[in-house]
Amino acid sequence: MSARKLFGTNGIRGLVNVELTPEMAIKVGSSIGTFFGKEKKLLVGYDARTSGPMFAKAVIAGLTATGCNVFFAGMAPTPSLQFAVKNHKMDGGVIITASHNPPEYNGIKVIWSDGIETSHEQEVEIENIYFDNKIVFAAWDKLGAKRELAGINDEYIQAIKKHVNKTKIANAHFHVVVDAANSVGGLTAPPLLRELGCKITSINANIDGTFPGRMPEPRPESLGDLASTVKAIKADMGVAFDGDADRSIFVDGNGVIYWGDKTFAIIIKQYLLKNPGAKIVTPVSSSTLIKDTVEAYKGELIWTKVGSVTVSQKMKEVGANLGGEENGGVFYGPHQAVRDGAMTTVLLLNIMAETGQSLSQLVAEQPQYFIEKAKIECPDDKKEILLQKITEQVKGENVSTIDGVKIWFSDASAILIRPSGTEPVFRLYAEAKNQEKALKLVEGYSSRLKKILETI
Ligand code: MG
Predict the structure, then answer these.
(1) 196 and 245 inside one domain
(2) Do 421 and 434 share a structural domain?
(3) Which of 31, 51, 80, 99 is catalytic?
(4) 381: CA distance to ligand 1 center in Å?
(5) Residue 4: inside a domain, yes or no?
(6) Tell me: the pLDDT tens digits for 48-90?
């Protein structure tokens, strides 16, 4: 964390008791409380991390010291807490989570009254209160109260069920393997799927904040146990959640793990068939598969900068009801315009039940893309000028400069060139109909970037 910065891409994150201490958490709580104002109602909860209760107590102390009334929900997935903020008409919320980071990390996310994370502008306001010591404490007789709020996970489960065809899902008798990474996804997904008539087998199901089963980031290399379990017991599907269960990655009946673009494209197709012309929101880092699918089924594609808060805000701004990211985050507006792992799982099962097709059949009909990635070193102080120079060079092509530079070519290949927000590097991400073309793109643009760098 730099001198005047607390928030990263998704809230405040840090190594427990090194970068993020209880002392800081109290001050962050008081800063958030000052930002919202006295007598406001804020919901607080945490994920399964060992430091969750400690940080929740610290944040609650800070909030109540500024006169905010805290409703404490205990342990819950991030989307469950977000839904409860909206459902209980809270003024906002605070979630203690480090999402997909390893167990030694924790973090603090701030939620606005609509259930969406606060905007970056609002985060700067909180940072200014924190760093300029503008905290306004309440008088001793105006301190906030803390009350328990039980049952939010069940309310969340019942809310999700309203959006799908319960009879069709029940009649399909799906067998689903759930891998909750020993975290909060295990509190909601298994009971939700069981209530929908699915048979559930769970792995990494016990809550354990040391995450002994696998790392909480659902990446193909950490989902071997899930894939082999699905295959061995002949289940219909496997689902893996990240640490706070807002993202979900899926495995088909053959044990094949799919990156989030493929499952998002399945959901887009069915959504556009039912909602012709609808707007679909996705970051510019998403695969050409998303562009192809939206075009094929006559939707309106809206690109955004990379980041889940940006997708949520854009959905709100343009009145879109579906958004998604390649990392397994799907935003289903009729439920809530935030990433929601359990909602995504149920949407997929609903499509499998309605079409009678397996997950592998649904993926098989999609166009295939091959991916190549690279990174080149670039000092932080040269990032802006390098981006400007490469943007000038590719003018006239089919280009988007929403976030970095993305170029689409007529042969359906594409490349995204983006400076990293955290490291002194530029990242290149190419896609093409064959591996050679993708490799050629990455190599070609890497050397162009290096050449420009020599001149600046
Ligand atoms: Mg997450």
Answers:
(1) yes
(2) yes
(3) 99
(4) 30
(5) no
(6) 999 999 999 999 999 999 999 999 999 999 999 999 999 999 9
